[in-house]
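Is this the right way to post structure tokens for a design question? Let me know if I should format differently. Anyway, here goes:
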């Protein structure tokens, strides 16, 4: 039987999945709905972005000249308000001639935080750096020793106060949240009940209430003249509030660990704390990195609420700077955009660091 050869028709070339055009096709023009939304957003962008860009830059006034800013109202932003009031915005009511001290203290603290996030710096000297920088920060800010003039805590403000409250609030709240999360899963009823009451009580009220109680009601239960400084009370309130929310995030990671791993550790003779430290917590914390960092970002932004107790952090210092000068008060939008940029830089940095941690965890899982 004679058979004729029939060639198979060539298959189409594979579609490219890398590059600009494939990315646009997959993300912006994948179907009719996404295409319509993309075109609408592009139209809005072409309509509103050029005037906004002109208001922000080309038509803006950068000199601290009130008359020029007043003449440019409605057409360009007045960044001169930032140039004129930046010292009050950044340092609050701290004495003008001593503002090099909070500047140096904030630089040391931020540098230490950045170094602590870089794996190459995870050495023994980093622990000593924390031991040295923390008291140095308070010595520079408060003075009263080493020939530095004393500055009371009610004069601290601006960016140094925001960074200090966020940094120490996060540092103190994280280990407390881990202990509370473990306590809520404890088999001892007294410890479990105590942790549940603490979490539900703190999470049931807003942070403003916690700060108000820590600042105004707590001293009523203390002997006259024995109440801690208002800054310490505020820091304790932020720490307890943040720890309650972090504890629930950590508890979610703990519940995701299979019970068989804990039973296997007990079979090997590991104690409770050895099991938690070597097996459970490393996995649980890695699972909830996004939630933990989300809480850290919330702590940083929640520091703006301390103005209720007359501590003028970054947001409060801006209000202090503008309310004290009626000439520059109409340009508060530019001032809020300035501190928005500062908040964005810190929060975006924490978000990107969270993604880096997730990539490191995923690499360890893929091995």
């Amino acid at each position: 039987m004679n058979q004729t050869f029939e060639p198979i028709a060539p298959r189409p070339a594979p579609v490219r999945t890398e590059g600009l055009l494939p990315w646009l096709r997959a993300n912006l023009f994948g179907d009719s709905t996404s295409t319509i939304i993309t075109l609408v957003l592009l139209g809005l962008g072409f309509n509103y972005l050029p005037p906004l860009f002109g208001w922000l830059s080309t038509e803006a006034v950068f000199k601290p000249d009130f008359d020029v800013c007043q003449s440019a109202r409605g057409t360009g932003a007045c960044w001169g308000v930032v140039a004129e009031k930046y010292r009050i915005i950044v340092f609050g009511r701290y004495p003008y001639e001593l503002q090099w001290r909070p500047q140096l203290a904030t630089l040391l603290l931020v540098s230490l935080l950045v170094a602590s996030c870089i794996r190459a710096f995870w050495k023994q000297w980093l622990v000593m750096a924390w031991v040295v920088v923390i008291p140095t920060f308070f010595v520079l800010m408060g003075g009263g020793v080493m020939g530095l003039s004393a500055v009371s805590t009610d004069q601290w403000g601006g960016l140094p106060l925001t960074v200090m409250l966020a940094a120490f609030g996060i540092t103190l709240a994280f280990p407390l949240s881990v202990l509370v999360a473990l306590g809520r899963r404890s088999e001892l009823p007294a410890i479990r009940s105590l942790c549940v009451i603490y979490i539900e009580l703190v999470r049931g009220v807003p942070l403003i209430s916690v700060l108000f109680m820590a600042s105004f009601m707590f001293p009523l239960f203390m002997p006259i003249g024995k109440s801690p400084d208002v800054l310490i009370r505020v820091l304790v309130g932020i720490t307890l509030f943040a720890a309650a929310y972090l504890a629930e995030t950590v508890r979610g990671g703990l519940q995701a660990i299979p019970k068989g791993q804990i039973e296997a550790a007990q079979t090997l003779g590991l104690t409770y704390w050895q099991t938690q430290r070597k097996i459970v917590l490393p996995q649980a914390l890695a699972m909830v990195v996004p939630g933990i960092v989300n809480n850290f970002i919330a702590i940083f932004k929640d520091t703006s609420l301390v103005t209720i107790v007359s501590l003028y952090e970054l947001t409060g210092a801006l209000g202090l700077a503008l309310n004290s000068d009626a000439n520059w008060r109409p340009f508060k939008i530019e001032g809020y955009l300035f501190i928005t940029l500062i908040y964005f830089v810190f929060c975006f940095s924490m978000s990107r660091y969270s993604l880096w941690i997730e990539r490191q965890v995923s690499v360890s899982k893929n091995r």
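Format looks fine. Someone answered above. Worth noting: DSSP finds 15 helices and no strands in the chain. The first helix runs from residue 20 to 27.
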